Write the structure tokens for this entry.
Amino acid sequence: MYKLLNSKKAVAIDDFIPLMFAVFIFLFAIAFLFISNSVDKKDNSNDILSTQEEIKATDNLLNFLQLPYTQDSTNSDLVIAAITSSTADSQEFTDLKKAIADFFDPLYSAEKTSWKLDIRLIPGNDLMTPSNILEVEGNTYLIASEFFSKIELKAKAILPVPNNRPVELRLFIGK
Amino acid sequence: MKNKLKDSKKATILYYIVIPGFFLALVFFYVSSLDPFDTETKYVGYKELSLIKLSQEANKYFLFTDASTKLSADKSILNLAEKGGFALASPCSNYLNYQLWTAKGKQCFPEYQKEFSSEFNTQINLFLQQLPSEEFVNFAKTDSNSFYPKVQSINYNLFISKDKITGIADKALSFGLFISKPKIGQYNSLPSFNIKKKVNTEEFEKIESEAIALINKCTLDPIDECIAKEKPSNWIVGSCEGDSSHEDRTFRFCVNSNTEITSYSDKSKSEKKKMQYRFALYFPLTDEELIPSETTVIESPLETTDLSSIEQEAAKASEKYSIDKNIILALIQQESNNNPNAIRCEQSYENRWQDLANTLNCQQYNCNEIIQSPQGNFHKVSCSYGLMQLMYPTALETCPEIVTTPESLYTKSINIDCGAKYLSKLIAQCGSISRGIYAYNHGPANCKTADINNDSYVLLINNKCSELGCSLV
């Protein structure tokens, strides 16, 4: 080796050996990182799809709640009125069921996607006493349902209720 | 040099190590700039999608506050009616939990807009406390970022018109998006709302006017008979629960309104409820118990002036009435902040002033001080003018030779001369400079016996006097 280095021809080749060695290490490191990265993120497409569905569902839910119900009120007000109405067969409940179906059915039936919206008082707050609504209507009030293979929670919104825990709206979308 | 280096065995080994080492350093630099170990950034576009989610989360928050504003407005209107128009308590105290609007020598009618703002902000922040804080960190728990560091309180500035309530928050709310510690996005918004007023809040002002009219009519015993005869038909004497007991000249009242408003039971059941206004009134008996004027204050804007001319006039008055010049200057500074055009007016609305207007000697008193409002109520407006804040009737009585009109009190020489003359008269009448100063602010009625050592006005003038190098002793 030492003799080789002393040869004039060999010196020219010799100059490239460390460089080639370094380039080899460099390429190996880059290849390693890209491979490991792609292994980590092999499920990325599912994550992106899921996030996009969440954003779309949240948009739909917010649009529904901000939609005018009467000249001076929105569907948010209708939800609160229905939740605080005296009976489960009140006019507000009937109107709310209709408003939900009228809004979400055309949206999701076109995509042949099942959906479900439930409205319930947020559980788990010990400071609040249980409401009559939960006792009368059950823990979850199912407004509309269309069961289809798998259905997942995609959007949530919260509205205030006087003298009680807030009410939570949960939009489930089928796959 | 190169050949010598290569000829050395040690140098050759070093040569093999240094160059790859250099490239390895480059690789690590490249790798760290790529940040492949940032596990929270799961995929390309993750941060961008998170920013969209941030705006949605902020919109959810505002959806909650918007719905809360309507509920808070209804609750505030109902609460204020039942608490006599006070968000907290009446300065006149209460009688059997009914807030007093009048007391001996005092009137405490609520300023509806101010009290409504206070009650409304209390109510809306109670609703905001309902927001489960974990709800807004759910995203943080699952995705290792955080939208809501803490649910913030909101304070709205309110504007109540005939049919609308408009509110604008006094500060913007910020929602930050944090990924791997640094904040990569922020959503700012100044919350505001504009809602329809469901209840006619002017009803409150009408009841206040009726209360004033009733107090003015019923001054003599038997007071309960007078109240029963003169009260408006929808007023009930006693509590809303039917207890009509009263104490001497203090009565509770319950006024039933035809306006309906949604109220909520403890179990959140809504019901339509007719508004009931609850308050108590004290009916003053003697002239000493007349309600003093302390309602509206109009103050002039400050005007800077030439201090040397004020000092010259004070020196002349000092010589003329034998009062220390600096005492006069201290008084001027306290009363008007050296503004010769200062004016401060207070007005009270009482039908009693109608009699005063009829019997008034217009040469002695300023007839312009009695005015009639569009509602037919008589207001007495008392103004203090100029550098030493003299009231026109007082100045006219003290210095008839120089004071001709209220406007003449804006003239520096007239105002200081007359003010100093009035002060010298009070000092002589009350027995000392301190007592004279006390009487200058409170009136001469009890200047000889008042506790002047603890009087805030005397202490203020004393402090100013010390700064100027004089003493009240």
